[in-house]
Amino acid sequence: MPSIQTREINAAHRLENVRYAIRDLAAVAEQVTRQGHTVLPLNVGDPNIFDFQTPRHLIEAVYKAMRDNKNGYAPSAGIKEALDAIRAEAEGHGIRSVQDVFVTSGVSEAVDICLTALLNPGEQILTPSPDYPLYSAVLARLGIPITSYDLNEHDGWQPDLIDIQRKITSSTRALVLINPNNPTGAVCSRRMLEQLAEFARRYNLVVFADEIYNKLILDDQQHISLAAVAPDLPVVTFGGLSKNYLAPGWRIGWVIVSGDPSGVKPYVEGIHRLLRARLCANHPEQYAIKAALDGPQDHLREVCGKLRARRDLTVKWANSTPRVSCVSPRGAFYAFPRLEIPEGDEIFVKELCLQKHVLVVHGSGFGQKPGTRHFRLVFLPDEQTLTKAYQSISQFIAQRYA
Predict the structure, then answer these.
(1) Distance from the CA of 104 to the CA of which of 38, 43, 385, 396 falls in 20 to 30 A?
(2) Adjacent-strand bridge partners of 28
(3) Is the pTM of this model over 0.85?
């Protein structure tokens, strides 16, 4: 029998630009673990691996749903009681022009579906820089070139309006706003939201408002939804249980589409074609949505109190450490310190993990201005753990760049 030559099966060319820096460092961490060391993961925004617990009433709601055999398929858009609760919550936060609501398998699926339903080849969407790398990964998969607008580090990481206007072309369909921002922790003021809304009106843009951290505000500042500021605009607002309600593994997100009903109708119909094609989001976990939004919010006081103390510790350390500085985060649980070092930030984070067993993420994995170097860290661990980690980072910097 003649031998058959094995032919290599190549991946699609469009995947060449798909990167996800937060998890791409796993190989380095695994190498350190194989050597018998314990790695402190300051790279992933998962509260549940530290001292945070999913609220009990959410767990009970899901358990009851499972016990009541709500274990089959759900409607493609989500169960009615969840959709009603999301709509009521949105209206309570000033989003008065809600046209549609649906539930997804985390905000990751929401972003994938909503961008896929909007963008055609040759069109573009403006994403912030730095940004959460999910957006870049989805656009790379769709074959849409990345077009980023700057966040201004010297203005508390607020969107750079001049750069946004410079980047808008006749092919621009939409703009992404992550507020509170991942990775910087910035929170937009009402004035900034009004200015962004004016750009969207002038250039006929859809705004994707990623507000997954909207209840994790660390200063005396109210979070304002862009859709509440601009009820006339087509705004796609993302939310979910992962961060505010400490249940990232449940993969429950949702989308609120607002704006002029006749304007958004064709787009919403396209979204629902994709929703039907993937059947549904996790069914029993959807019963936690009403429990979360309508139930006790006591955990938020405790969570924000812990995060505020850990944020303050982080900023104090960064701004007192040679070669490091940091704009104080105002929401979420990330900091994005700046490095003044003679080598790339990806080398920095890899060597930090190998030598000190602390895992952070290189700023270039989120995007940053040319010539600058940053890293993102998660300040979810308790103060004692963070203090130990920061001592290790300080020692690494002093030894490596003396």
Answers:
(1) 43
(2) none
(3) yes
